[in-house]
Specification:
133 residues; alpha+beta; Ubiquitin-like (UB roll); five-stranded mixed sheet; two-stranded antiparallel ribbon; 27% strand
């Protein structure tokens, strides 16, 4: 069974900040697999967007003397590695900076198994840590 699901990113006020469509091939998956699929698709979408977006001109153009002294800056890779982002997202989940709700139930373990159906509702709630005392 293949299910195409929408994962909604929400604020703590319940406002939808964005949505990502993922495909899951199994009817039962772990929370870690849901997160992996989400991160993979988000990074893929971001990399496609970066590839088609025109390059931004620099805010400050170096003078010819600066270019002669320092050379030109190498172009930075515009591709994001989904594996790095997946590790960061799992760490944020472990630290409760990202909460995962599936069918209104909060999951706290990456190993928890969930049943996936076409009507499955998935929300990611991103928490912002506040500084101060």
């Amino acid at each position: 069974m293949m299910a195409t699901l929408t994962i909604r990113d929400e604020s703590t006020a319940g406002k939808t900040l964005g949505a990502t469509h993922i495909e899951l091939r199994e009817s039962q998956v772990t929370v870690e697999e849901v997160i992996r699929s989400y991160v993979f698709q988000r990074v893929k979408d971001c990399n496609v967007q970066r590839a088609v977006a025109p390059p931004k001109p620099p805010l400050v153009v170096p003078s010819q003397d600066e270019v002669m002294l320092n050379g030109t800056q190498p172009a930075q890779s515009s591709s994001i590695d989904w594996r790095v982002e997946f590790d960061k997202t799992k760490e944020a989940f472990r630290n409760q900076q990202i909460l995962v709700f599936i069918n209104e139930e909060q999951f706290n373990s990456l190993d928890a198994v969930v049943r996936i159906e076409p009507s499955t509702d998935i929300k990611f709630l991103h928490l912002t840590m506040l500084m101060g005392g």
